[in-house]
Amino acid sequence: MKKFKGSIALKSIRIRNIAFLFLFLFVTSFLTSCKEDDGSGHIFKMNIENNPQNLDPQMAVDSESIMVITNMMEGLMKTDASGAIVPAAAESFAMSEDGLTYTFYLKQSRMWESLAEDFSAPVTADDFVFAFQRIFDAKTESPYSSDFLCIKNSSAVLNGTKSINELGVRAVDENTVEFKLEYPYYNFLGLLTETSAMPCCRSFFEFTNGKYGMAADACASNGAFYLKEWNYDPYWDNNYLIMRRNISYSETDYVFPYSINFFITGDSSGDEESFSLGNTDCFITEKYNEKLFKENNNIGKSVKTVGLLINTKNEYFKNKSLREALAKSINRDSYSHLLSEQYTAAYGIIPECITVQGKSYRDMSPDRVLSVYDTNSAQLWENAMRSSDIGSVDGIKITVSEEFSAPEAIYDITDKWRSELLFNCGVETVSKTEYDSKINSWSFSIALVEIRADKNSPQDFLGKFCGNNLFTGNAKLALDINNLKTAASLSEGVERINNAESEIIIDYIFIPICYENEYLLYNERSIDIFYYPVSSTVWFGEAKYFD
After folding, report:
1. What is the pLDDT of residue 380?
2. CB count in 10 Å sphere of residue 475
3. Which of 76, 113, 214, 447 is most exposed by smallest CB count within 10 Å?
4. What backbone phi and psi angles, to 5 degrees, belong to 201?
């Protein structure tokens, strides 16, 4: 390329021309932005109830921490707006034919962002290797090790018979990370979307000297936003976290908001009012407000299963035939119209929010075939009583916590029991303290219980029925639930989940009544806010606000 030297006069003319060009572009850009607002640059504001306990992805379990980490960090894979599992920090990935090896190729322009002075590092394959080594390092005591036992040598590393360097995760090169599995697992990519699978920069972790994730300058971000301020004093009412757009991330995946401000309120009761006054852009609620929902956008999913827990230690209900008659006497079609928008009738155990490979489990395995209504339930009840030589069932009440907003369906059910089975069953509402005491000591006959999904995992949700002594004697159920983690294909996984769910239903110890919904409510000027109901998490990376 040839270079020319011009006169001073020619240079000044060029400078003036360039100045006019910049002025023209600025004015054009300004006028265009007024006419065609792309929704970027907004500061999104949201209340969170509690101060995040720990922003270490391999340790955090509380919903506030997971909310912040989701906006601050990015794993190899993510769930997009449609529910599909797609590459995130990975540019692409490959799976071997036998399903035992996964190779991920990282996006190469990503950098770690932190308030810490003199820290700068690219995101590399070793960051993911180190994160998984921390999960299985006994010194870490991560609560997530059981989720990733499909990784080769993971159990041996946990019990100390193999070293951490023998874990089946390695950096092939700076931008390639490889996972070796013990067995093919149909939902491995789904596991990699969880916050626990997000990377950890080894040098930064060591730099924080034991304070990793505990303060703003002890956090490093590879995601859409980085943590700029974390202000919390339990004796002060002005507590907040401020997050800013991560520039290196935004170079490849544009981040629309300029900032997120999380206000730590200590009490969620004022969230609706704060939103109505325009002080926040969104809030999460379990209560359906018809006026607010009509005037704003909302996303809702069922996150809890509400049902009747029957105490098999009770002199009557140790008889399975009697429990079966009770369960089969419940006609969900008869009370569906009594349920508010907060509830939907439940025939199964697993709520709508649980997904497998990015697909709703309930869509793949409809629940209506699980809980059967029998028009001859009165005869079943009579036969059960006769075979057990029971004259009448007396003194039975359904114990309900005052914290629950017991659906009208409960009273419809007890009315039907009274009229069709001649079984008089009352409802007692007690304080949370008394309720917890009754549940823990099993000093109840029937209790209304709410079971919430803590993880996006059918195995974890169904495991709640083994972990709280409901089914400790049911060896088949325990085996069915344990076998979920070794299913090689999606179809096999869905079949095994269905078998375990059916096993719970036909023991008639827990009778599903309804699913309870949770909603994200956000104003009509906003779009593309992602909501993950299991963890009550909102992701703002693509959120747009139009004036």
Report:
1. 94
2. 9
3. 214
4. -75, 115
